[in-house]
Design goal:
Number of helices: 7
CATH architecture of the largest domain: 2-Layer Sandwich
Number of domains: 2
Distance between the termini: 14 Å
Strand order of the largest sheet: 1-2-3
Radius of gyration: 19 Å
Shape: globular
């Protein structure tokens, strides 16, 4: 078994929540008073908002270069900034060029956006980028797939291996499995790395 999920997933488009949890514990321990804790939380939110603004500027330039129209939404979800490019229904068909057949173009754009944010702010960014709802749709599909596999594990008492997935997809599955009270691991080598849901 290749039980290195946290390390492997942390290098991909979407990392494990381990870093977020450790950071939260460290922040809580460093605060001497509720006022200081509130100030630190406010500073973190401000930092994430700055990441979102820088990313939005970068993506606007990208849209101009590609001669594509799109609206950019900035959000903060689970201690992470996220930026989405959306358009009218017909516009999404053109934005799909920035997604790629299997999301590979979107993954590349996300990494470039993170580098742009890091270059501007001087710190590593974990910002998430979605285009034309690709990640949101894929997350819903993967959640249903994971829930079905969890049902199989519980009914048969045997491990279930899923098809190869990219880091973002594996992260979604790991989260669903954890919420269900089961465990999972990533095995194999990229690009054929896959998730195994454990019966025990």
């Amino acid at each position: 078994m290749n039980d290195d999920r946290d390390v492997a997933e942390s290098t991909g488009p979407e990392e494990s929540t381990t870093d977020d949890q450790n950071a939260a514990v460290a922040d809580e321990g460093s605060a001497d008073s509720p006022a200081e804790a509130g100030a630190e939380a406010s500073a973190r939110v401000q930092r994430l908002e700055e990441e979102g603004e820088v990313a939005a500027d970068y993506l606007e330039e990208l849209l101009d270069i590609a001669d594509l129209d799109g609206d950019i939404d900035i959000d903060i979800d689970k201690a992470r900034a996220s930026v989405s490019i959306v358009s009218e229904e017909d516009g999404d068909r053109y934005l799909s060029r920035l997604v790629g057949e299997k999301g590979e173009v979107l993954d590349a754009i996300q990494e470039l956006t993170r580098l742009a944010v890091q270059a501007r702010l001087g710190e590593r960014s974990r910002i998430m980028v979605d285009i034309a709802g690709h990640r949101a749709d894929r997350r819903a599909t993967l959640t249903a797939l994971a829930e079905e596999a969890i049902g199989t594990v519980r009914s048969t008492g045997s491990d279930v291996s899923l098809d190869p997935m990219n880091p973002f997809e594996r992260k979604v599955v790991h989260d669903v499995v954890a919420e269900a009270g089961l465990s999972s691991d990533s095995e194999g080598v990229e690009p054929k790395r896959y998730v195994v849901i454990r019966a025990s």
